[in-house]
Amino acid sequence: MHCHQCGSENPDGARFCGNCGVGLDAGQPHPHEAGPSIAGRPGAGDIPPRDLGQLISATFAVYRRAALPLFIIALVPQVPNIFNLQQEPMLSLVLTIAATLLSIAAGAAGVFCVGHALTGRSTDVLDCYGRAVNVFLPMLGVVVIVTLALVGSAILMLIVIGIPLFFFLLVIWSFATHAVVIENKGVFAALGRSRELVRGNWWRVFGIGLVFVLITIALVVPVIVLSIIVELLFNPSLLVFNIISAVTAALLVPLWQVVGTLLYIDLRVRKEGYGLQSLADDLSRRPGDAR
Fold first, then answer.
1. Tens of pLDDT along 39-73?
2. Which residues does 132 contact at the CB level (< 8 Å), separation at least 6?
3. 3-state DSSP call for residue 291?
4. Separation between Cα atoms, residue 287 and residue 200, nearest integer Å
5. pTM of the predicted model over 0.90
6. For a Cys staple, 102 with which of 10, 77, 109, 190, CB 3.0–4.6 Å?
7. How far is CA 256 from each of CA 28, 164, 273, rounded to the nearest angstrom?
8. SS3 call for 41
9. Which phi and psi angles does 287 have, rounded to 5°?
10. Rg (CA), the chain
């Protein structure tokens, strides 16, 4: 059975594409209904483990499918940056703080958006941000702890030990925010959960992340060239450059939200037999319903 969204081949009777997650037959049962059972988990087994090539393909397939809501979600925290013209130091500080806090909320909203796209739900921007508000405090806690740890390890880069420590922490805590958003984990539980998922897969996660860094660089280079041309020909104002930077960020940030979520799900598929029904249940669960 071929997927009409990405063209991938799927087993006969499959309800969702194992590559991009789109529903394969509009006449099939609702995606929240229980699927086939593997290892006692309803709906498990309908997401296959993905290698690097499949992750790249799935990332761009999901990105295309939810491009508009993902763009809007990522653009919201860029709005304060657009008007940050650095004329008033206090105003600039307030706008920077606002952009930072909105970025944290946008990170959670982006994960919800990707999850909804994978399970066939509507990707409503306001709903995604509404769900993000419910997990904002643990998200903030995770971001603060991870940032402080990474800054500390970056300082230690002045001596040899800092380099491996920085990348070690960056990788093992890559999925802490996903644990908060999808599993309703608290701050320290989310950090521990991320490390548990990465255990035995550190080099794989690091390698995939490195590949997407290179992909991002390849996408950014044309923007840099365009910015240089605009500067030479038109000498635009800072506001124009801020707008260009905001739009560029809003186009690139979702790419990392998609691949991060897909890789998080892939680790759970490999370790726990995670499936679309389980993902749908996790996304439906409110913070007060956390296990």
1. 334 444 578 899 999 999 999 999 999 999 999 99
2. 105, 106, 107, 108, 109, 112, 139, 181
3. coil
4. 29
5. no
6. 77
7. 31, 22, 24
8. strand
9. -55, -35
10. 20
